[in-house]
Amino acid sequence: MNGQTEEQGSREAVEERVASHVSQPALAFEGLVKRYGDTCVLNHVSAVLGPGQIHGLIGRNGSGKTVLLKCLCGLARPDGGRIAIRGQDVRPWQKVPAGIGVIIETPGFISHYSGMKNLAYLARLQGRADKQALRRAMADVGLDPDSRKPVGKYSLGMRQRLGIAQAFMEGQDILLLDEPMNGLDKQGLADMRALFLALREDGRTIVLASHSSEDIAVLCDTVHELDRGRMTRLR
Amino acid sequence: MRCERLLSGIRPFLSLAMAVAARVLLSKRAALVFLVEAVVFWDVLGPVASFAVELGYRVGPWSLVFMAADPICQLFFVTGLIFLLADAPFVAEGEASVAVRTSRTCWAAARIAAIALIVILYYLVLLGMSWLFTLPWMTFAVEGWGVTLTTLAETDAAETVGLPLAFAIGLVGSMEPLSALALVLGFEVLGGMVLGLIILAVNSLTGTHFGVGVAAFVALFDLLAINTLPYAALRFSPVSHGRLTVFDFSGASPYFPTPLEALGVDLVLACLFGLLALSAMKVMEIQPRSLD
């Protein structure tokens, strides 16, 4: 009985999440400019990313994928243009709205803490996730929530899995993932692809920056390419 | 209800500050710094312990007061601290996942609090070292400064036994040891905070490690103030204020600062650089940088 109620509640939450975003894009940016000295990394970049989809972002090394993700989550300040999250304009250095999960560059953790303790520390910063949600997130990425192994002894793939877990563990509905498949073995790749598809089914929006054409082909609903500061929609 | 809201605001700030401080203090760099400081303490306090054995009296726990009064020891203390704080604002790999969970103001303020924690713990460890290296011959049950330290300060015994430290004679006569130790720790922590905030502000403003250079200049300004500049410069040297010998407790000297004046200068500098650091961190790009 309890399980039924929980399942119904969870379905309602998903429907509500999807319904609330139908009328507005999850992320939109227009005329985004970012310069480092004389180099223009983002040159009037614009896109509208719909909710409940996986959006691929491809480009060569140094093409500005990471910088774009940093601008979207407030880690870097664009020199021009505007960003809207769920239809709301985000001004530079205004607090980024809650509900955004990120992996930018390498996921970093407190190396002498266990995976679960690291997630608990991050969750405490926002005060949003309960212990059960954290355990679920660990299990979803294939890590043992009861393991006391310190993160310093994790393999690269395990760290990456933990990085993905922290990005969605509090129910974030927009995920900005920069090369999330780095360091994963074949099984890990398959698991994470399945997870991302399940998250999409759950109504979450994922922006996936990747070098792997296979990941992009299998997972993404739309694909944008960044080249010399310009963005083109490929699909 | 209001209290709960306040706590929910403070909790992430404290968690973040403690995590940053722990990361710095548990790093290999911190181990290296404490190892070097331990060598300095061993070099200075070894002969004090031998002298205590020779004299047949135990040493009181006040050695740090005399060490801090020596410009070279003081330079060792602040150099270690500058090295420890060189990477301020301590942006780690994966900082993105922390930064999106807090406001930028909370993220920045936690770094200032972390510097305060690091400086306090650093000087507490130094105090612990000053006890550790005389531990077998030390006692807390000592009246006043104790025979050993008083003899070293008021006679030429230090020179005779080859102590590498000039024991400041004025300290023993003018102050109670506990007040002196409290004053030394207070001013050392405040001076260390100023250095840390200078590093934090300049590094955040420039996106480089130039703050280390500026802090090193402030540390060396202490030696300049003693040797080259007019003594009045000591009023504006936060590193000098950890040495009680620079204070004029009567307030009659036109050159030397009173403790209150020194406190005023240090607090103004700390507030100034704290605000500068806060505003710089609010607009900086969050990017991991390390000297390692």
Structure write-up:
Chain A has one domain: P-loop containing nucleotide triphosphate hydrolases (Rossmann fold, 3-Layer(aba) Sandwich), CATH 3.40.50.300. Chain A is built from 7 helices and 10 strands. Chain A has helices at 2-22, 65-72, 115-126, 131-140, 156-168, 186-201, 213-219, and strands spanning 27-36, 39-49, 54-58, 80-85, 88-90, 100-103, 174-178, 205-209, 222-227, 230-233. Mean pLDDT of chain A is 86; it is low at 1-5. Chain A is of the alpha/beta class. Chain A is 37% helix and 25% strand. Chain A is globular, with a radius of gyration of 18 Å. Chain B has helices at residues 2-25, 28-55, 63-68, 71-84, 95-99, 104-132, 147-154, 157-160, 169-174, 177-206, 210-227, 259-283. By secondary structure, chain B is mainly α. Chain B has one domain. Helices cover 67% and strands 0% of the residues of chain B. Chain B contains 12 helices and no strands. At the A-B interface, strand 6, helix 3 and helix 5 of A face helix 1 and helix 5 of B.
Nutshell version of this structure?
The complex is a heterodimer of chains A (235) and B (292). With 235 residues, chain A is of the alpha/beta class. Chain A is built from 7 helices and 10 strands.
Describe the secondary structure blueprint for this structure:
The complex is a heterodimer of chains A (235) and B (292).
Chain A (H helix, E strand, L loop, with lengths): L1 H21 L4 E10 L2 E11 L4 E5 L6 H8 L7 E6 L2 E3 L9 E4 L11 H12 L4 H10 L15 H13 L5 E5 L7 H16 L3 E5 L3 H7 L2 E6 L2 E4 L2
Parallel strand pairs in A: 3-8, 3-9, 6-7, 7-8
Antiparallel strand pairs in A: 1-2, 1-4, 4-5, 9-10
Chain B lengths: L1 H24 L2 H28 L7 H6 L2 H14 L10 H5 L4 H29 L14 H8 L2 H4 L8 H6 L2 H30 L3 H18 L31 H25 L9
Helix pairs in contact in B: 1-6, 2-4, 2-6, 4-11, 6-10, 6-12, 10-11, 10-12
Defining key terms:
heterodimer, A: 235 residues, alpha/beta, Rossmann fold, six-stranded mixed sheet, disordered N terminus, B: 292 residues, mainly alpha, 12 helices, globular
